[in-house]
Amino acid sequence: MPHFYDTCAGPIEGLYLPPLAWEVLRRENIGTVDQLRADADRLEQLDGIGSRMAHVIRQELARIVSPEERTSGGAQLDAWTA
Predict the structure, then answer these.
(1) Is residue 53 helix, strand or coil?
(2) Which end of the chain is more exposed for a tag (fewer CB within 10 A), N or C?
(3) CA distance 80 to 29
């Protein structure tokens, strides 16, 4: 999938997201990876986040998942299952 957004570091260490995504997360008081993961299934419901931006955010979350978190019941998960 082509990369449609310029990304940058933000307040959540290790994540590189488009500036618009950082602004929405700030407005929604989402400031940690755990908070973002907890809200990952409802990203499209946040004002300013469409389906494409939500996909970009979920891909970035999957990228930073630790190897221990990638295993689930012995099966290896990849970035597309996030």
Answers:
(1) helix
(2) N
(3) 26
AA identity, residue 52: R
Interatomic CA distance for residues 78 and 82, integer angstroms: 7
Q: What digits encode the pLDDT tens for the residues 44-76? A: 999 999 999 999 999 999 998 765 655 554 444
Structure tokens at 66: 């630790």
Cite the beta strand spans of the chain per DSSP E. Answer: 8-9, 16-17, 71-72, 75-76
b/e map of 60-82 (b: 16 or more CB within 10 Å)? bbbeeeeeeeeeeeeeeeeeeeb
